[in-house]
């Protein structure tokens, strides 16, 4: 098996509610994979199964060619997990927060300084966690992942609740790790983030994967309307068919200098998800 992460027919229920239903995944080395779904769709549960935190009711999964439910202590150094509910020690400084984990993983303080510098928190190393902004806390959690230099990184809603500028900082850190050859498993309900970062995605709804592939492939697959939206100089908009029959209309409008912009109406991940599920992702 040459896949970094592999899952076959993973199912899981809690109190008679099926959270995951026969999930299948194959994720290659150096890939950013996005799992998209609304809150409660089962995204976090799948991460916990893949990383051996909980066992599935059925199915099998591997991480770095090791069965998830057979992971040993030494195997956990090969992947890092950043989850919002993995809290920080609020009364400890940034440095001391990481120092605890450095001791657990038996790595030196040099890794702490390097990871704080990587996320832009080196100057805040003595600041206690309770005084950090939400964005700085996210970066500190990211530093905790980077400190062990894993080849797989699990990120569970890493930019949720952050302002756009801070979210962009986190996204840049994610891309830097991808460029180092790391495999990144990202859960998100932010469609723009998924389109910007991910090589491949899967859409999760009510415990099932309803669509998968690259963001561009998926959007092309659901390009039913095939319309052109033309914004005219008089402020109005005109929608016409995206085919050869409209060539004369466009030519006349251009000749009369009436066209300001032309846009095709191909769907984005949000409209595809809504078409498949009847739900919005950003809930």
Short description:
Helix content is 32%, strand content 28%. The chain is built from 9 helices and 13 strands.
List the helices and strands and how they pair.
Blueprint: E1 5-14, E2 17-27, E3 32-36, H1 43-50, E4 58-63, E5 66-67, E6 79-83, H2 94-104, H3 109-118, H4 134-146, E7 152-156, H5 164-179, E8 183-188, H6 191-197, E9 200-205, E10 208-213, H7 215-221, E11 227-232, E12 237-241, H8 247-255, E13 259-264, H9 269-277
Helix pairs in contact: 2-3, 3-4
Task: Provide a descriptive summary of the structure in words.
- The chain has 283 residues and is of the alpha/beta class.
- The protein folds into two domains: 5-214, P-loop containing nucleotide triphosphate hydrolases (Rossmann fold, 3-Layer(aba) Sandwich); 224-265, no CATH class.
- It has nine helices and 13 strands.
- The strands form three sheets. It has a six-stranded mixed sheet, sandwiched between helices. A four-stranded antiparallel sheet has the order 2-1-4-5, covered by helices on one side.
- A hairpin with a 2-residue loop joins strand 9 (200-205) and strand 10 (208-213).
- Helix 2 packs across helix 3 (109-118) and helix 3 crosses helix 4 (134-146).
- It is globular.
- It starts with a strand and ends in a 6-residue tail after the last helix.
